[in-house]
Specification:
The protein is mainly α and about 190 residues long. Helix content is about 60%, strand content about 10%. It is built from six helices and three strands, in the order αααααβαββ.
Length: about 190
């Protein structure tokens, strides 16, 4: 364990590589999910070949890149908050890095808070891509075929439980409430039943 926290050029290169790999992974998730939802929607509504490369698809890919940056920013913010808390307590760089009996340190973030973070990120981003792709395809049907969405959210928190089973206009779709949110939507054709 190093005695001091020192940011080096090597760390910066690792950070850039990590962000590039995370972005590529998110784009792959979003692209794969978008293609799957597109295929299902086209088959269900008997649309025949519908081009997948359009402005809305490119926007979804841009959203994937933004999601990768947001995950990185969340990590940076959590580390910054832990450093600030350590400095307020008058701790040394080593104590901030590795903790004390009363302070978990930056190392504590990775051992506790982020123990399941890769799985949480994967689940959340795949669900976000699926939701965005579904809404995108339902809107593209044209002619007002899909006017409303049935909200399915099987989570056990109060917010998600309250919206489970509700119907919303497609012009105002719901968004995920938190990481690991299970929000999904189904199309309602031709008006509210």
């Amino acid at each position: 364990m190093p005695a001091e926290l020192v940011w080096t050029k090597e760390d910066e290169r690792d950070h850039d590589l990590e962000l590039a790999l995370l972005t590529a992974l998110f784009i792959k998730w979003y692209g794969t999910t978008l293609k799957a939802i597109h295929t299902i929607t086209a088959r269900f509504f008997n649309l025949g070949p519908v081009p997948l490369d359009d402005p809305s698809v490119r926007q979804i890919i841009l959203n994937a890149q933004a999601a990768a940056v947001a995950v990185d920013a969340t990590t940076q913010k959590a580390i910054a908050q832990r450093i600030a808390a350590g400095l307020e307590q008058g701790l040394t760089a080593r104590q901030i890095a590795y903790g004390t009996d009363d302070f978990p340190g930056i190392d504590g973030l990775f051992g506790e808070t982020w123990k399941n973070r890769p799985l949480t990120v994967a689940r959340t981003e795949i669900q976000k891509a699926q939701l965005e792709a579904s809404i995108n395809r339902f809107r593209r049907l044209g002619g007002g075929a899909v006017t409303h969405l049935l909200v399915s959210d099987g989570d056990f928190d109060a917010f998600c439980e309250n919206r489970n089973g509700t119907i919303v206009p497609i012009s105002n779709p719901p968004s995920m409430a938190h990481p690991n949110c299970r929000l999904a939507v189904s199309p309602i054709l031709g008006g509210i039943p």
